[in-house]
Design brief:
This protein has helices at about 25-35, 40-45, 55-65, 75-80, 120-130, 150-160, 165-170, and strands at about 5-15, 20-25, 110, 115-120, 140-145. By secondary structure, the protein is α+β, with helices and mostly antiparallel strands. It has a 5-stranded antiparallel sheet with strand order 4-3-2-1-5.
Amino acid sequence: MAIPSVELKLVINTEEKRVLFAETGKDCVDFLFYILSLPVATVVGLISREQSLGSLRNIFESLETLNESYIQPNQNKNLILHPPCPSSIPPPGSSIDGGGGLVKGMVTYMVMDDLVVKPLSTISSIGLLNSFQIKDVGLLEERVVTLGSDEALKMLAAMLKSTTVLTDVFLN
């Protein structure tokens, strides 16, 4: 079975080598909002040890290696380290029929480089280009990319330490 994925159309400022925004549908937006429901310990467990999480990794590993003799008899450290994920919002690409998830389908959404999400309209994209002081649209490039499980994990790590998440994941 194939792992679900979704497409994003990146709008890139080629002069500054950064993503201005991405055009995407409900599956990607549902995934981004789904991340908010993940417990911190789940996030730490999902991100590879090579990626920096500051002190979050240290506290996670401290509890993980703490001997059971230091844990209260009525407590279970595994419930903190590996909590159930209480959400019905699917990971990227899995609400194929458009009926599930959090946001409505039949809408194109704009996801900014810092992951601000808004419905996309022609007026909003023109206003956005003006706010970025884009005078020459020839400096813009559209690039279609896939958000699969590898990219999703990279996004998860990047959003904990960066405000240029799309640029970090898809251009660097």
